């Protein structure tokens, strides 16, 4: 029996927009009301961690209310049909996983997790609620959103390149 084809799918904000998740760059997107330098950079975190936490706590609640849409379900359905599917997403939501996809690589992090401010390997699930000032990791540093901010490196980039190199077929929903 032949091995099932390995599909690698690259997704961006467009796939989750149908679920009601605001994109960052659309004309009514998140950056219209929140300048990047105020909520999505290491400097913003140093200047005003409460503002950054508030911004991401609001995004987190929006994502928790959202439901996977037909595109998320279709990709998960390919796995049920016997395909090996790896999803590389720029999205920080968990809609692929909730739809049933099992192999999802989050290039820009996962909003439903927190991480240590001093050791990015220390991650903690946020089953409910958000992150508050004073919540610390096991090493005692403030927890922050587990997302890649502007000016930070993408730690899983090499993993994404490896997945693409092993693919039998690649597809991207990201706009150019």
Automatic annotation (TrEMBL):
Write down the EC number. 2.3.1.286
Highest taxon listed in the record's lineage: Bacteria
Q: Which UniProt keywords apply?
A: NAD, Transferase
Residue intervals of the Deacetylase sirtuin-type domain:
1-176
| A Pfam family annotated for this UniProt entry | SIR2
Which class of enzymes does this protein belong to? transferase
* Stated name of the protein: protein acetyllysine N-acetyltransferase
Q: Which organism is it from?
A: Vreelandella olivaria
- Lineage of the organism: Bacteria, Pseudomonadati, Pseudomonadota, Gammaproteobacteria, Oceanospirillales
């Amino acid at each position: 029996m032949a091995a099932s084809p390995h599909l690698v799918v690259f997704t961006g904000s467009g796939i989750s927009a149908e679920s009601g998740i605001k994109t960052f760059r659309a004309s009514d997107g998140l950056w219209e009301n929140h300048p990047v330098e105020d909520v999505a950079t290491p400097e913003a975190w140093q200047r005003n961690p409460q503002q950054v936490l508030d911004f991401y706590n609001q995004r987190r609640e929006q994502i928790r209310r959202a439901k996977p849409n037909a595109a998320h379900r279709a990709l998960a359905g390919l796995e049920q049909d016997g395909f090996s599917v790896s999803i590389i997403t720029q999205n920080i939501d968990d809609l692929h996983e909730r739809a049933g996809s099992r192999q999802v690589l989050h290039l820009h992090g996962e909003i439903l997790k927190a991480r240590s401010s001093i050791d990015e390997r220390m991650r903690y699930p946020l089953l409910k609620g958000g992150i508050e000032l004073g919540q610390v990791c096991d090493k005692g540093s403030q927890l922050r959103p587990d997302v890649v901010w502007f000016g930070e490196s993408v730690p899983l980039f090499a993993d994404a390149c490896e997945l693409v190199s092993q693919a039998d077929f690649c597809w991207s929903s990201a706009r150019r």
